[in-house]
Amino acid sequence: MKLLKFAPGLLIFSLLFAACGGEESYDETITVNPVNPIGTIGGVVFDGTTDSPLANVEITAIVGGQSYTTVTDESGIFSITEVPATGNAVLLYESEGYIKARQQVQFSKSETDVSYESPTATANPIWLFSASGSFSLKLLDSEGRPVPQVPVTLEMRPSYVILDENDSFVQVGNVIRVANSNNIGLVEFLDLPDKAQVGLDINATITVSIPEVDLDGDSIPDLNATSRTFNYSDYQGTAAIVNLTESQAGSLYVANTNFPYLKGSYKVPGTFEANDTIYINFSRVIDSENLSIVLLSNEINGSSWPIEPTIDGKMVSFDLPGDIESAKKYYLSIYAVTPNYGYVYSRTSPLFTTPEAEPAVVSITKDDPLNPNSSVTVTFNQYIGPGVSYITTLNGENGVVYFSWDINESGTVGDAPGEIGYHTTSMGFTSLEEIPGWVSSLYPSGNLGFSKEWRFTPQGTVNAGTEVHFKFDMISNSNYLVITPQGNPVPALSGNLP
Q: Of 213, 243, 273, which one is at a domain's C-terminal end?
């Protein structure tokens, strides 16, 4: 087991390692002293096979609009000094023969919320997997005949593992590969995490997505699209078998995509960044002359970006504009049609962009400043919510609003609902999410489950300046858990009542 210890102003790694059988061990402490007056980033990398430190891993830190590169030493440790302490940084891990990884770190702050003179950012310990694994499957029709020349998309999770602040191993990331079936229907995927590293402690799964198959080239599918999920450890040197069923005539739809909203509403829709690539594998060949893709801003009469996609039969791909902003919501409008039979796909779906910082309270304002019992609007720096359309208000045991205030005037804070320290709250926390009128018809409930603005009404009169706590970790029902569109839980936050 390995433990990561923190100390203000210093970056300290305490590594405890035991080989198989407990025959060898070492206890080593490494201290990285930050460079004054700017910051230092450090971390440690392990090999997922041997559980030993991994040397010569190239680490690229993206911080303050600049890139800084270093490599891990023989102990798997790296440090990057003299970097701008801008609050957070993105770390990219890359080593020949290993799966790439990515992690975000945040610079330390003092208890008074004033940055240390020499702040540090400590990355979670990370385990990289060797890219020497493989997976194969065989495509057969309903009569057992091989189905050749079909593009199959594979998604494998996880692609790396980190040790979080609670000393728990967290499986992170995914690996996406695309390969065609050969003349005997065999599809082989290479450069996957090594099977030997994916044992009982790692729940590695593989999902393959197979589009509709047009065997005779008449633009009408003969075999249905499908997706299957496999346990990676179950296929050691053997090929998985997928039998494709015969297709009936049907509509044009999205068979596979890295943008989940195009296939329906998702609790965790994911986020994108400027210049990210979106791919859409339709069920039929698309007419290139009648394909329209436009990115629209959330504001009324806001900006729009016509998209010029790349089209290869059923596959459509395009890059998002380079000038879209982080932590925003846009809408992607797609109109597609088949060339010969007039099947139409038309959908406008929300697209969230990746925030640059962790969730935080931007402002707390009274809706009526002159009314001491006025409802209060809370604005966050990014979209948060339960991610489901039918939950618009958090109440009771699934509420989040607590005060450092003696609401029941008992002389004690924490003995009544809504008081910090008590297990329930009586103040509803309501989403103020708004959907443009031209989109709402696609979402009958009128919301998606994510909003930057939320509202609550204090119980009784609470003095200005009273600390209000948003305790998202107090929610008892998993359906009501507040997350970001990336699927990350929102930590407890606080502010002061105006």
A: 243
Least confident of 127-141, 178-192, 427-441: 427-441
Sequence-distant (≥ 6) Cβ neighbours of residue 113 within 8 angstroms: none
Confidence grade of residue 479 (pLDDT, cut at 50, 70, 90): confident
| Spatial separation of the C-alpha atoms in residues 363 and 378, rounded to whole Å | 6
The CATH number given to whatever domain includes residue 223 is 2.60.40.1120
Tell me: pLDDT of 74 over 90: yes
Tokens representing 255 are 């068979």
Q: Can you give the residue range of the structural domain that contains 376?
A: 361-496
Unique residue bearing structure tokens 């609009």: 65
**Closest listed residue to residue 364, CA positions, set 464, 433, 483:** 464
Query: What pLDDT score was predicted for residue 446?
Result: 58
399 neighbors 425 (Cβ within 8 angstroms): yes
Predicted confidence (pLDDT) per residue in 181-196, tens digit? 999 999 999 999 987 6
Shared domain for 113 and 202, answered yes or no, is: no
Same domain, 152 and 42: no
104 neighbors 87 (Cβ within 8 angstroms): no
- Report if residue 248 sits inside a domain: no
